[in-house]
Amino acid sequence: MTDFLELGPHAGFIIACYVVTLVVIGALFVWILADGSRLRARLAAMEAQGVTRRSARARSADARESGS
Amino acid sequence: MAILDLANPTRFLALSARLLPWLAAACVIAFAVGLYMTFFVAPDDYQQGATVKIMYLHVPAAWLAMMCYSVMAISSLGTLIWKHPLADVSAKAAAPIGAAFTLISLITGSLWGKPMWGTYWVWDARLTSVLVLFIMYLGLIALWRTIEDPIRAGKAAAVLTLVGAINLPIIKFSVDWWNTLHQPASVIRMDGPTIHPTILWPLLVMALAFTLLFFVMHLMAMRNEILRRRLRTMQLQAASARVGVATPQAAE
Amino acid sequence: MSGWMGALFLRELRLSLRVGGGALIGVLFFLAVITVIPFGVGPDLNLLALIGPAVLWIGALLATLLGLDRLFQADRDDGSLDLMLMAGRPLEVLVLVKCLAHWVGTGLPLVLSAPVLSIFLNLEPLAIGAVALTLLVGTPALTLIGAIGAALTVSLRRGGLLLAVLVVPFSIPVLIFGVSASGAAVTEPTPFLTPFLLLAALTLISAVVGPVAAAMALRFSSD
Rounded to whole angstroms, what are the CA distances from B141 to B92, B168, C183? Predict the structure, then answer.
């Protein structure tokens, strides 16, 4: 752990870099996950309303897919 | 054959669902190894001290910023030439990820620049090119968001992406030219002429980790995009069905 | 030049110069930009002479961007763009002719007014000549690159701002070589011809890439 803390005089900049990277990637990840779950919920709602896509076969495959 | 198989979105969803956990696991392992090497194995640079640790974020992010654009350019070719149904899904999913990595590369670059150059921003050729790339990513995302029809948006963005792919080397060249014109060559270069293996290995591992991270996020974003298009078709269908029901009633 | 190209060129030119065409508003905008600069940076004539070529180039770039949305928009609104698409002529050549006419209507006035405006910026005669020459060679590239953005955003109702954002990154090389060529004409050691020829090369490249990509985008926006 001592190695970890010996970042020299510019420790602030190094830590800031890692924090910024983490925040940006984390935000992107959260956005992708939230987007996905929102889309799945809305798709499920549409299907519950009885809206079907062109092929029912593909739809059932989707249902299995989005459930996983 | 593999590409043709993937042309079916449903099959792509199934395949990517099987692939994703493995990719994510590999990504986590690569990051664990890479970060361990960065903080406990890699030595400090004799000139830059511990700030060289920023390189392990900055260089892979910059590499991914460019690779992501290549992925988008190849996908655009797929859209325009082979009319591959997943090509514009891939291009659209890649754009925000590319923009994010470009942003990371810019921020870490300027945070690295402050201790090295004494200022957060230098109109250095590389930083400037990356800034231009960032603007291009944002422009592409804006184009996607303004054209409503996804097929048409995909084609328009594909044209712009390819024009960008032709122009990026020209922009890079002209910015380099402009930089040598305006700046003395005494700026500390970010990479030395030779990279010592003790620094190179952690860098390569981090680059691999970032690349895996890109593919994980890209696959996830592509799956989202397919679902979004599905939802859109269903909504249109529902709307047209509603109109179809409503019209005879109005006629009565 | 075969007949239809000449006819199209004259039509475009007439439309852009007539009332409602708005070609000359670009020059007015150029004048406004140049007038505003000294209020921003101060009336120091030495400083103005130093940044003069760059200011003129940026003004010309902005004025060109401002007029670009007229390239296809009006034709799309009244349906003549669809007729042009269906006319069976090579669309790339058609776009090239339209760009040429658009440049004569909006770009050339900018080039001609640049020497007058450079007096405000305290430029030497040599620098005035260099700026006018580089603008003459470089502004067609801006129009041709801008045609891509105009074609991409033609179906959007408020595409003007997006167009500018899309086109600006691609116009950076033109700006770099244009400004350095006009700067090189004044400062001794740097050669004028190298950036100038590169600028000419950029114009020629964009004369190929611009019409091809714009034609592609127009075809996609119509179907």
Answer: 8, 17, 36
